[in-house]
Structures are given as C-alpha cells and as structure tokens.
C-alpha cells in the first residue's frame, strides 16, 4: 500500500505568516491528491483536489502544488480562522484512500 | 442543499454488531460514490470503505475487510455500513462522505455528515 507522510506534525506561526505543509507519497500518485481542513470539533472540509485545484468557496490564500510523490499545501497569509488540523489524502485508482497523519496548525 | 445524516451509532460489546445508516438529500444519490471514514478519539482520519454509485463495486480498508459490509439503497437515498465482529480498535466517530465528482469511484470527499460515535467496550 502507498503510505502518505505529512510534515511537520504540528506548527505554530504568527498571523500573516506564510505556512507550508508537505505530504510525501511512498509511490507516485500523479496528481490524485487532496487536502482537507478539520477545525476543532468540526467535520473535515476539502480545500484542494487534483493537487492544485481550489475547491469552490475556499479562500485564495490556500494553494496546493506538486505531482508524483511530493506535494505542498501553502497558506500565504495565516489567519486566526485557519487554526485546524490539515490532512492530505491520495485517491488514485487503488484502495486504500490513505490519509496522511495530519498537521496541526496553531497561532503563535 | 446537500445533507448527510448518519445514525445507528452507540455502545456495543466486543464481538457485537451494529448497522450505521446515512440518509442523504440535495443531490442525485445514484450518481455518486459514497464512503465511510472514521476518526478514533484524538486521532487522524481513516478511510473505511467506498461503494460505487450503482452499488456494484465495493472497496474496504484491510482493517475492516471481512467484518464490515457497505451497501446502499438508491431508492431510499441511504447508505449503510454493517459492522460485525467489532473490536475496541473500531471505536471512532464514523462519517459518511460523498465523492466530489459524479460517476467516479475514486474521489476526494466533498460533503460529510456530522458523524456518529461507535464505542466498542465491555
């Protein structure tokens, strides 16, 4: 099975900072990669799919990049409402639809 | 408005069974693959199972294969998860989720239900 490894597992940054989260697949998955945001006590929400396509309604400060095995989620200017845990997920044509371990983002 | 509403969670003893339901509205149910995702207390997300829009094809995580059965009734706009031989490690909030794109089995998850808690304990 393909493993999805996120780093860091947690980070603390100031409002307005640029934040980068990485996700590495143990094998190539083309661009079949999604990013989710889960705020405390809330249901996960898809932010980005196909590695770089922003889901409608998601603020433009979120962006995704990458292909193959290495992917990045960037928050260009961290806002207080971005406090959440972020997960990557691969969804290429073979189960399992593995999630990364998550990255907890906090405000410094 | 898309809505997904899970039910059926609760406390069950190890080895027991439980059937979860997810009633959906606001979209053409049969066009979309549907999935179950779980989250153990304080832990990350774990994909459990997916079923194609027509209900013909099913997929399972190794951790539940042979114990859980996913199904759907497109006439009732309802998704199910029959969970048998439950273990303590199955304790989690179980979410149903709709695939983002119609007619594709492999999809990110777009709309999610609020989740139903399953606790396996004696």
Q: What would you note in describing this structure?
A:
The complex is a heterodimer of chains A (108) and B (122). Chain A has 108 residues and is mostly beta strands. Helix content of chain A is 0%, strand content 48%. Chain A has strands at 4-7, 10-13, 19-25, 33-38, 45-49, 53-54, 62-67, 70-75, 84-90, 103-107. In chain A, strands 2-10-9-4-5-6 form a six-stranded mixed β-sheet, with no helix packed on it. Chain A has a four-stranded antiparallel β-sheet with strand order 1-3-8-7, with no helix packed on it. In chain A, strand 7 and strand 8 (70-75) form a beta hairpin. Chain B is mostly beta strands. Chain B has strands at 3-7, 10-12, 18-25, 34-39, 45-51, 58-60, 68-73, 78-83, 92-99, 109-112, 116-120. The mean pLDDT of chain B is 96. The chains are: A mainly beta (108), B mainly beta (122). At the A-B interface, strand 4, strand 5 and strand 9 of A face strand 5 and strand 10 of B.
Give a topology summary.
The complex is a heterodimer of chains A (108) and B (122).
Chain A: E1 4-7, E2 10-13, E3 19-25, E4 33-38, E5 45-49, E6 53-54, E7 62-67, E8 70-75, E9 84-90, E10 103-107
Parallel strand pairs in A: 2-10
Antiparallel strand pairs in A: 1-3, 3-8, 4-5, 4-9, 5-6, 7-8, 9-10
Chain B: E1 3-7, E2 10-12, E3 18-25, E4 34-39, E5 45-51, E6 58-60, E7 68-73, E8 78-83, E9 92-99, E10 109-112, E11 116-120
Parallel strand pairs in B: 2-11
Antiparallel strand pairs in B: 1-3, 3-8, 4-5, 4-9, 5-6, 7-8, 9-10, 9-11
Could you list the spans of chain A in which at least 5 consecutive residues all have pLDDT below 50?
A: none
Could you tell me the radius of gyration of chain A in angstroms? 13 Å
N- to C-terminal separation of chain B? 40 Å
Supply the helix-strand structural class of chain A.
mainly beta
Shape of chain B: globular
The order of strands across the largest sheet of chain A is 2-10-9-4-5-6
Number of helices of chain B: 0
Number of strands of chain A: 10
Beta fraction of chain B: over 45%
**What is the H/E string of chain B?**
EEEEEEEEEEE
Main sheet record of chain A: 6 strands, mixed
The helix fraction of chain A, in percent, is: under 10%
Number of helices, where a helix is a run of at least 4 consecutive DSSP H or I residues of chain A: 0
- Main sheet specs of chain B: 7 strands, mixed
How many distinct beta strands of chain B? 11
Largest interface: A-B, 25 and 23 residues
């Amino acid at each position: 099975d393909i493993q999805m490894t996120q780093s860091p597992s947690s980070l603390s940054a100031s409002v307005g900072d640029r934040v980068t989260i990485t996700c590495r697949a143990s094998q190539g998955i083309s661009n079949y990669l999604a990013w989710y945001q889960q705020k405390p006590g809330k249901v996960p929400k898809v932010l980005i799919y196909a590695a770089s396509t922003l889901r409608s309604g998601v603020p433009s400060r979120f962006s995704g990049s990458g292909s193959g095995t290495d992917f990045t989620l960037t928050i260009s200017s961290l806002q207080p409402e971005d406090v959440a845990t972020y997960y990557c997920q691969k969804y290429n044509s073979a189960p399992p639809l593995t999630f990364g371990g998550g990255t907890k983002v906090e405000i410094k | 408005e898309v809505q997904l509403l899970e039910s059926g969670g609760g406390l069950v003893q190890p080895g027991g069974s439980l059937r979860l339901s997810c009633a959906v509205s606001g979209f053409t149910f049969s066009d979309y693959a549907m999935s179950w995702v779980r989250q153990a207390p304080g832990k990350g997300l774990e994909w459990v199972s997916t079923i194609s829009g027509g209900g013909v094809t099913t997929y399972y995580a190794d951790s539940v294969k042979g114990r859980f059965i996913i199904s759907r009734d497109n006439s009732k706009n309802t998704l199910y998860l029959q969970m048998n031989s439950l273990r303590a490690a199955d304790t989690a909030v179980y979410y149903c989720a709709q695939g983002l794109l119609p007619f594709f089995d492999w999809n990110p998850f777009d709309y999610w239900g609020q989740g139903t808690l399953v606790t396996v304990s004696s």
